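Support request, please re-run this one:
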Amino acid sequence: MNEKLRDYWKLFIVFFRIGLFTFGGGFAMLPLIEKEVVDVHGWVKREEIVDILALSQSVPGAIAVNTGVFIGLRLYGLPGAIAALLGVVTPSVIVILIIAQLFSQFQSNLYVARAFSGVKAAVLGLIAAAALKAGRNALRDRFGMVVTLCALLLSVSGLIPVIWVIVLGGLSGIVYYRRRGAMP
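Re-run finished. Output below.
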C-alpha cells in the first residue's frame, strides 16, 4: 500500500474509532480526540490542541468534525481533511441508519430509557473533564480567568449571542497581549 494512502487510512481509522466509541456529540469526544492526536500519535502538541479546539468551536459545524478536518488538513492537506471527516462522521451515519430502522421498537422499552439516562450522565462527565483540561491549558494568567468568567456570564445570561462572546473574547486577547508586548 502506498505510504500516503496508509497515512490517510490511519487518520480515517483513528477518527472512525473516536466517532464510534464516543456518545454525546462533539464535546464528549474532546478527551478522546486529545488523547489520540496528542498522546498516542503525537500529531499535535498539547499546547496546540487548545488552539485547534477553540478554532473548531468558533466556526460553523460540529466541533468534532471541525477538529478532525483541521487536524487532517494540517497533517496531510485536503486528502487528510477528507479522511478525518469521513472517519468521524461514518460511525454516526451507520448508527443513525440502524436506529432509524429500529426506533419504534426501542421507544417504549424501559431498559433502553434507563440506559440512555446513564449515558447522559457519563456524557456530562466527559464534557466536564474536557472543559477542565482545556481550562488548565488556556487559563495561564489573571486576564484569561477574567475573560473566561465574563464569557461564561454573558453566554449564560443570553445578553448577547454566543458568536459575539467568541469575537469579543478574541479581540480582547489581541488587544491585551499586544499591549503587553507578548504578540507581534
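The mean pLDDT is 85. The two ends are 45 Å apart (CA to CA).
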